[in-house]
Amino acid sequence: MEKTDRTFVDAWIEKLLDRAYGASQRQKRIKVLVNPFGGTGTAQKLYTRDIEPIFAAARCEIDVERTKHSGHAVELTAEKLDTDLFDVIACCSGDGVAHEVFNGLAKKKDAARALTKIAVVQLPCGSGNAMSLNLNGTDSPSLAALAVVKGLRTPLDLISITQGDRRTLSFLSQAVGIVAESDLATEHLRWMGSARFTYGFLTRLIGKTLYPADIALKVEIDTKPAIRQAYSQESSKPPPTHDSRPIPSHTAGLPELKYGTVNDPLPESWTLVPHDTLGNFYAGNMSYMSPDANFFPASLPLDGCLDLIRIDGSIPRMTAIQSLLAIEKGTFFDMPHVDYTKISAYRIIPKNQAHGYISIDGERVPFEPFQAEVHRGLGTVLSRSGHLYEAKGVC
User: Fold this and answer.
1) Where is the DAGKc domain (predicted)?
2) Please, what are the domains in the chain?
3) What 3-state class would DSSP assign to 97?
4) What's the pLDDT at 24?
5) Whether residue 95 lies in the annotated active site
6) pTM score, two decimals?
7) Beta strands 370-383 and 339-350, pairing class
8) Which member of 18, 82, 84, 95 is catalytic?
9) Whether the predicted pLDDT of 351 surpasses 90
10) Helical segments of the chain, H only
C-alpha cells in the first residue's frame, strides 16, 4: 500500500473511532468480577459467551476473577485491588456484587480517591439488574457490555447508611414496608422470577399490612411541580464531554457525616414525625428497580438527593392495586396519595414490631433504626448519557 493511501486509511479509521466512541475512553482497563452463584448460576456462561467477545473486540485490557462467597468482592476491592491499574470494575452479577464493590472501595485508606477514580458497572448476570437497566438501558449482557465499552464516566451520588455501630454505602435504594417485605420475604419463591414480588405485594396488600415508624427528613424539594422542574432543567442540558471532578488525594477517606450517625442526637432542624399507618417507605437513588418498575422517574445521578416515596397503608385496597398497575404504566408519580419528595438525609425508627424487613440495595439488614445521608458525586459509574438514567423521566 502506498504511503499516502496508508495515511488516508489511518485518518479514516481514526475518524470512524471518534464517531463511535465520542467522549468515551477507548480500550478501557477492566477488572471483571464474575459471581458464579448469583441468579440462576449462569454468570460465567454469560460472560464467556456474551460479554468477553465484545470486550476483546474493543481491545479492552481484561483481568477476570470469580467471587467465591458472599462478601468476597468487598475483600477483593478493599485489600487487593490497585485502583491505578484499572479504569473500571465490571460486576458480572446482580446488584449485590456492585453493592459489595462500592463498600470495598469505601474501606480503602484513600476511599474518596478510589471511588472517584474507578468506575463501577454492572453487567446483568443476576436476578436483580437495576444498575444495568438505569445506566446501560438494558438487562441484556451483550448490549450492556457494548454500553460499558462506549460508556461515559458519570459521577454518582452515594449514601452513607449508619445502623448500630456500622457505616455502609448504598448506591441504589433503601426500603422499609411493603416493598422490602415483598422482596426479602419471598426469597423462597425465586423460582417464580419477578412474579414473586407481585405475589408478595398482593398478599400483604390484601391483609392491609402496616409498618409503623417515626421518620425525620432533611427535605430539599417538597412539591411535585418543583421536582418536575428540577428534572426538566437537568435533562435539557447537553451531555458532558468529560468528568470534571478533581481526583482526591491519597489521604482522602470517606467524607465526614454532616448529621452524625443514628446513635447521635437528632439534628436540631429535624423533627421525628409519627407514621403509625405507614404502608411503604422507599428511597431511591436510581429510577428503575426492575424492568417494569420505574419507581423514581425524577431520580438523577448527581443532584445530591434521594427520591423518597411514602404511602399510607390505610388507603383502600383498590387504590393500592391501582398504584401497583400505575408503576408499569408510568403514571405512579402523579397519583395524589403518593407522597414524593427529594431529600438529602433521613432517620427512620421502626416501632411496634419485634421483627421485620429492611432492604438496602436489595440486601437484608437488621430490623432496627438507621440513618441515611447523601454524598453528592462520591462514586463513579459509566452511563450512556453521562448525566441521566435510561428511564422515562417526569418532564
Assistant:
1) 25-165
2) 3-150 (3.40.50.10330), 163-378 (2.60.200.40)
3) helix
4) 85
5) yes
6) 0.94
7) antiparallel
8) 95
9) yes
10) 3-21, 43-46, 52-57, 72-75, 95-106, 111-117, 130-135, 141-149, 178-184, 195-206, 224-235, 317-329
